[in-house]
């Protein structure tokens, strides 16, 4: 029998709680739900008012993995949805606005992916993202070296960058921006990637061509396009272990010597939040947003 629980006055059917989703560690669906419930205070502000795409893996990362952008069938009527523009025509997407809708979505077994704009201003970017993706044998250690260069380059334009792990093998840099379209932010990010390659040609590549990427860090600027999404801070990832896209300090980036130093699992996050709070809270402060040059 599927247990029914109440979250903020909403009744939820939470299914298959004993199901192992991460075979490498035995991490269950019940533990996934507990993780999201206990991380909601820092996660929800980064989801709120942003249309969400779900990367679903209901049988674990070794089973079927698929993206859901439209409102899933069976979505409760109390879950907030909104119509958003797309090149192929408008679509209706989910907004995760509160703990009840977060737990409903987590019960579907998802990664959360969000755009770099808010639902009331689609195509007007409020965030810039640079996805640093290492090509084997490069690792997150090399990503950290590139991130430090990009931090200084962004600071020269009055833009404050904040790092988080991708939750897989790379690193994301996020910055709050204002007064720019997604197209303008994409072009600015592309220019930064080109400059990084010129400054560190043995380490950085800005083009997506896979044959250029072994041993280098691909600075992916393309996720700033209005149609693109990026893994939300604190989301679990569909990997063999319950890895999290976790905010990190610049000191941790500076001192990273092995990939294991910046690999955080679900059980690591509560102590980190207790110690640091939300390291990405500055992204939510509009007064700290930078303007493109």
UniProtKB/TrEMBL annotation:
- Asked if the record carries the keyword Ribonucleoprotein, the reply is no
Q: Which UniProt keywords apply?
A: Ligase
Q: Which domain of life is it from?
A: Bacteria
Q: Does the keyword Ligase apply?
A: yes
Q: Ranges for the DNA ligase D polymerase domain?
A: 28-279
The EC code for this enzyme is 6.5.1.1
**A GO term for molecular function:** DNA ligase (ATP) activity
Report what the protein is called: Non-homologous end-joining DNA ligase
Q: Which organism is it from?
A: Streptomyces cellulosae
Q: Which gene encodes it?
A: ligD
């Amino acid at each position: 029998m599927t247990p029914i629980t109440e979250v903020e006055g909403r009744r939820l059917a939470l299914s298959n709680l004993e199901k192992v989703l991460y075979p490498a560690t035995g991490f269950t669906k019940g533990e996934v739900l507990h993780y999201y419930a206990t991380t909601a205070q820092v996660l929800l502000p980064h989801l709120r008012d942003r249309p969400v795409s779900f990367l679903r893996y209901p049988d674990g990362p070794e089973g079927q993995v698929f993206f859901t952008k439209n409102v899933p069938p069976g979505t409760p009527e109390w879950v907030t949805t909104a119509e958003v523009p797309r090149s192929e025509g408008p679509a209706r997407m989910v907004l995760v606005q509160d703990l009840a809708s977060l737990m409903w979505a987590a019960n579907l077994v998802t990664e959360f992916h969000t755009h770099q704009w808010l639902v009331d201003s689609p195509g007007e970017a409020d965030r810039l993202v640079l996805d640093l993706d290492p090509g084997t044998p490069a690792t997150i250690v090399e990503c950290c070296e590139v991130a430090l260069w990009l931090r200084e380059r962004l600071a020269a334009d009055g833009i404050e960058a904040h790092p988080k792990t991708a939750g897989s093998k790379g690193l994301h840099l996020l910055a709050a921006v204002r007064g720019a379209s997604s197209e303008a932010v994409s072009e600015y990010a592309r220019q930064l990637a080109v400059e990084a390659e010129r400054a560190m040609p043995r380490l950085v590549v800005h083009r997506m061509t896979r044959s250029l990427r072994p041993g280098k860090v691909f600075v992916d600027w393309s996720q700033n396009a209005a149609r693109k999404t990026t893994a939300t801070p604190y989301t679990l990832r569909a990997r063999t272990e319950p890895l999290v896209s976790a905010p990190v300090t610049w000191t941790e980036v500076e001192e990273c010597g092995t990939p294991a130093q910046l690999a955080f699992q679900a059980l690591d996050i509560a102590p980190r939040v207790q110690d640091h709070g939300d390291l990405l809270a500055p992204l939510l402060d509009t007064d700290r947003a930078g303007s493109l040059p």
